[in-house]
Write a structure and sequence with these properties.
Distance between the termini: 70 Å
Low-confidence stretches: 101-110
Number of domains: 2
Protein backbone atom coordinates (compact mmCIF):
# COMPACT_ATOMS: atom_id res chain seq x y z
CA UNK A 1 0.00 0.00 0.00
CA UNK A 2 1.55 3.33 -0.99
CA UNK A 3 1.60 6.35 1.31
CA UNK A 4 -0.85 8.18 -0.95
CA UNK A 5 -3.51 5.54 -0.43
CA UNK A 6 -3.30 5.25 3.36
CA UNK A 7 -6.58 5.32 5.32
CA UNK A 8 -5.52 8.72 6.69
CA UNK A 9 -5.06 10.11 3.17
CA UNK A 10 -8.37 8.64 2.02
CA UNK A 11 -10.21 10.21 4.96
CA UNK A 12 -8.49 13.51 4.28
CA UNK A 13 -9.60 13.50 0.64
CA UNK A 14 -13.14 12.57 1.71
CA UNK A 15 -13.18 15.33 4.34
CA UNK A 16 -12.07 17.99 1.88
CA UNK A 17 -14.37 16.77 -0.86
CA UNK A 18 -17.38 16.68 1.46
CA UNK A 19 -16.65 19.70 3.64
CA UNK A 20 -14.07 21.82 1.82
CA UNK A 21 -16.49 24.60 0.88
CA UNK A 22 -17.89 24.71 4.43
CA UNK A 23 -14.38 24.92 5.85
CA UNK A 24 -13.45 27.74 3.47
CA UNK A 25 -16.47 29.73 4.67
CA UNK A 26 -15.64 28.84 8.25
CA UNK A 27 -12.07 30.12 7.83
CA UNK A 28 -13.48 33.26 6.22
CA UNK A 29 -15.47 33.80 9.38
CA UNK A 30 -12.30 33.76 11.43
CA UNK A 31 -10.09 35.89 9.22
CA UNK A 32 -10.93 38.75 6.87
CA UNK A 33 -7.40 39.49 5.67
CA UNK A 34 -6.90 37.42 2.46
CA UNK A 35 -3.25 36.49 3.16
CA UNK A 36 -3.97 35.48 6.76
CA UNK A 37 -7.08 33.63 5.62
CA UNK A 38 -4.98 31.58 3.19
CA UNK A 39 -2.45 30.81 5.94
CA UNK A 40 -5.25 29.77 8.28
CA UNK A 41 -6.76 27.57 5.56
CA UNK A 42 -3.42 25.83 5.08
CA UNK A 43 -2.94 25.44 8.83
CA UNK A 44 -6.44 23.96 9.10
CA UNK A 45 -5.87 21.49 6.27
CA UNK A 46 -2.61 20.31 7.83
CA UNK A 47 -4.26 19.96 11.24
CA UNK A 48 -7.12 17.96 9.72
CA UNK A 49 -4.74 15.61 7.94
CA UNK A 50 -2.64 15.12 11.08
CA UNK A 51 -5.68 14.55 13.27
CA UNK A 52 -7.16 11.90 11.01
CA UNK A 53 -4.44 9.49 12.11
CA UNK A 54 -6.42 9.26 15.36
CA UNK A 55 -9.91 9.19 13.85
CA UNK A 56 -11.74 6.05 15.01
CA UNK A 57 -15.26 6.79 13.81
CA UNK A 58 -16.69 7.53 17.26
CA UNK A 59 -18.37 10.58 15.70
CA UNK A 60 -19.13 11.62 12.14
CA UNK A 61 -16.32 12.81 9.91
CA UNK A 62 -18.05 16.21 9.72
CA UNK A 63 -18.08 16.56 13.51
CA UNK A 64 -14.43 15.53 13.68
CA UNK A 65 -13.44 18.05 11.02
CA UNK A 66 -15.35 20.83 12.76
CA UNK A 67 -13.73 19.96 16.10
CA UNK A 68 -10.34 20.39 14.47
CA UNK A 69 -11.53 23.64 12.83
CA UNK A 70 -12.79 24.85 16.22
CA UNK A 71 -9.39 24.22 17.82
CA UNK A 72 -7.42 25.76 14.97
CA UNK A 73 -9.76 28.78 14.81
CA UNK A 74 -9.61 29.35 18.58
CA UNK A 75 -5.80 29.15 18.52
CA UNK A 76 -5.73 31.60 15.59
CA UNK A 77 -7.89 34.09 17.48
CA UNK A 78 -5.67 33.80 20.57
CA UNK A 79 -2.52 34.35 18.52
CA UNK A 80 -3.96 37.48 16.91
CA UNK A 81 -5.80 38.84 19.94
CA UNK A 82 -3.73 42.03 19.91
CA UNK A 83 -4.93 43.10 16.47
CA UNK A 84 -6.50 46.51 16.10
CA UNK A 85 -10.16 45.48 15.85
CA UNK A 86 -11.60 44.77 19.25
CA UNK A 87 -13.93 41.83 19.76
CA UNK A 88 -17.29 42.50 21.33
CA UNK A 89 -19.41 40.73 23.89
CA UNK A 90 -23.07 40.34 22.91
CA UNK A 91 -24.06 43.12 25.31
CA UNK A 92 -21.59 45.48 23.62
CA UNK A 93 -22.77 44.50 20.15
CA UNK A 94 -26.33 45.39 21.16
CA UNK A 95 -25.16 48.96 21.83
CA UNK A 96 -23.50 49.55 18.43
CA UNK A 97 -24.99 52.42 16.45
CA UNK A 98 -27.03 51.65 13.34
CA UNK A 99 -24.60 52.09 10.45
CA UNK A 100 -26.92 51.59 7.49
CA UNK A 101 -25.94 53.92 4.66
CA UNK A 102 -29.16 53.74 2.63
CA UNK A 103 -32.28 54.66 4.62
CA UNK A 104 -34.41 53.37 1.76
CA UNK A 105 -33.39 49.74 2.28
CA UNK A 106 -36.19 47.38 3.15
CA UNK A 107 -36.04 45.79 6.59
CA UNK A 108 -35.92 42.29 5.10
CA UNK A 109 -32.91 42.87 2.88
CA UNK A 110 -29.78 41.43 4.45
CA UNK A 111 -26.45 43.08 3.86
CA UNK A 112 -23.92 40.25 3.98
CA UNK A 113 -21.04 42.67 4.48
CA UNK A 114 -22.64 44.04 7.66
CA UNK A 115 -23.51 40.59 8.97
CA UNK A 116 -19.96 39.36 8.53
CA UNK A 117 -18.53 42.57 10.00
CA UNK A 118 -20.67 42.07 13.11
CA UNK A 119 -19.88 38.35 13.30
CA UNK A 120 -16.13 39.11 12.98
CA UNK A 121 -16.35 41.43 15.97
CA UNK A 122 -18.00 38.91 18.29
CA UNK A 123 -15.95 37.09 20.89
CA UNK A 124 -14.47 33.81 19.58
CA UNK A 125 -17.03 31.38 20.99
CA UNK A 126 -20.01 33.50 19.90
CA UNK A 127 -18.43 33.95 16.46
CA UNK A 128 -17.83 30.24 16.08
CA UNK A 129 -21.35 29.32 17.13
CA UNK A 130 -22.79 31.73 14.57
CA UNK A 131 -20.50 30.38 11.84
CA UNK A 132 -21.53 26.81 12.69
CA UNK A 133 -25.18 27.90 12.66
CA UNK A 134 -24.70 29.45 9.24
CA UNK A 135 -23.28 26.11 8.07
CA UNK A 136 -26.59 24.54 9.15
CA UNK A 137 -25.32 22.52 12.10
CA UNK A 138 -27.90 21.82 14.76
CA UNK A 139 -27.46 22.59 18.47
CA UNK A 140 -26.48 18.99 19.24
CA UNK A 141 -23.77 19.03 16.58
CA UNK A 142 -22.45 22.39 17.75
CA UNK A 143 -22.45 21.10 21.33
CA UNK A 144 -20.41 18.09 20.33
CA UNK A 145 -17.86 20.33 18.58
CA UNK A 146 -17.58 23.04 21.23
CA UNK A 147 -18.10 21.05 24.42
CA UNK A 148 -21.08 23.18 25.48
CA UNK A 149 -24.46 21.67 26.25
CA UNK A 150 -27.00 21.69 23.41
CA UNK A 151 -29.29 23.86 25.54
CA UNK A 152 -26.52 26.39 26.12
CA UNK A 153 -25.75 26.43 22.38
CA UNK A 154 -29.42 27.01 21.51
CA UNK A 155 -29.65 29.87 24.02
CA UNK A 156 -26.48 31.52 22.74
CA UNK A 157 -27.58 31.19 19.11
CA UNK A 158 -30.94 32.75 19.97
CA UNK A 159 -29.21 35.69 21.66
CA UNK A 160 -26.71 36.17 18.82
CA UNK A 161 -29.50 36.14 16.23
CA UNK A 162 -31.46 38.69 18.26
CA UNK A 163 -28.44 41.00 18.47
CA UNK A 164 -27.72 40.67 14.76
CA UNK A 165 -31.37 41.28 13.87
CA UNK A 166 -31.43 44.40 16.02
CA UNK A 167 -28.15 45.69 14.57
CA UNK A 168 -29.40 45.08 11.04
CA UNK A 169 -32.68 46.85 11.71
CA UNK A 170 -34.74 43.69 11.21
CA UNK A 171 -36.30 43.77 14.65
CA UNK A 172 -38.20 46.73 15.96
CA UNK A 173 -38.35 47.57 19.62
CA UNK A 174 -41.77 46.99 21.13
CA UNK A 175 -43.70 50.21 21.99
Amino acid sequence: MSASSSPQDQLYREALQSHGAELARFVGGYERDPARRQELQQELQLAIWQSLAGFRGDCSLRTWVYRVAHNVGARHVQQHAGRAQQMLALEEAEQLPDERQDPGQTERRLDLQRILALVHRLKPLDRELMLLYLEDLDAAGMAEITGLSARNVATKIHRIKAVLATQLGLKRNAP
